[in-house]
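Entry 14. Ran structure prediction on the chain below.
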Amino acid sequence: MSEIKAEEKAAAENSGEQDWEAAKAVFDTLKTKVPRPPKPQNAVTIAVSSRTLFNMVAERKLYEDEGLEKYVAFQVEHENEPMKPGPAFPFVKALMNVNTRLRELYPDSEELFDIVLMTNNHAQVGVRLINSINHYGLTIERFCMTGGKSPIGYLKAYLTNLYLSKDSEKVTDAIEEGIAAATMFMPEKESNLSSTQLRVAFDGDAVLFSDESEIIVKQHGLDTFFEHEKEFENKPLAQGPLKCFLEALGKLQRKFYAKNERMNCPIRTFLVTARSAASSGARVLKTLRSWGLEIDEALFLAGAPKGPLLEKIRPHIFFDDQMFHIEGAKELGTISAHVPYGIGQKYNKGKLIEQPKKK
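Output, structure tokens:
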């Protein structure tokens, strides 16, 4: 039985490959200035919701106050008015810049970012979304509009590497499905972001790494944590929900390094962690080394606020599992994304959040 299933899977994969090659051949015969979308199997796929790509606060309020029909009617009535940029907009623009550079160095390569609009909006709203995307010159060719249903079930079918949403429940569902995901927040003031380099900042524990060490801090205190990290310095930490995205970024970075473009690479990664360097930093760096991954800059803050450092880095996105770090970052103008993973979700500013009693 297993041999039959293996043969069926191989046949399906071969059929899919033939379908893709046929579609590619048709596209190549057409004269267009629009870049051909990369093959999903080769791309780094970033799925963004409509509310992260565009600022839809007013439209969301209309939906909540007056219902779906009034919301859809409003969107149709205003479909020729482009929506304002949302928190993921600068990130998407930076991804497109990386693609431009990659196509210059590798004209035939399909190892590129592929941006997918993943939304539970109804198809009637799609015209305004398309018009807004075209207004800003964004290269987003693949849509998934689920008409009020959760789009999470489609993420794996779209081979998603990262999912960004404003809905924390959907983000949690995606992480439980093994997909890197985060809830995005608009900064409270604007920052002058780089137009030539994608900058991505990661927290360490419960983001790139599992929350195993953070559990020790919360349950036993810092001294026990320092002793534990020293004892297990040479044992790699387990991976966290965003490790695969850092891996995907590293894969594209190496394509620039192969062309002697390391110093001019349009992707730069940062580790911004509350860990202390001398007391608990070695295990983090050795874990990254054991994974074969590089981080461009590592900042160990020993418990100091992250906001002021992030204000200097000016990342297009900053991932953290602790909401108080997210709040501090966005107050100073950093586009932040909360990763709802690990024991940190039970705490706020180091204090245990009272859990509702089970009935």
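Residues 2-29 form the longest helix (28 residues). Will compare against last week's run tomorrow.
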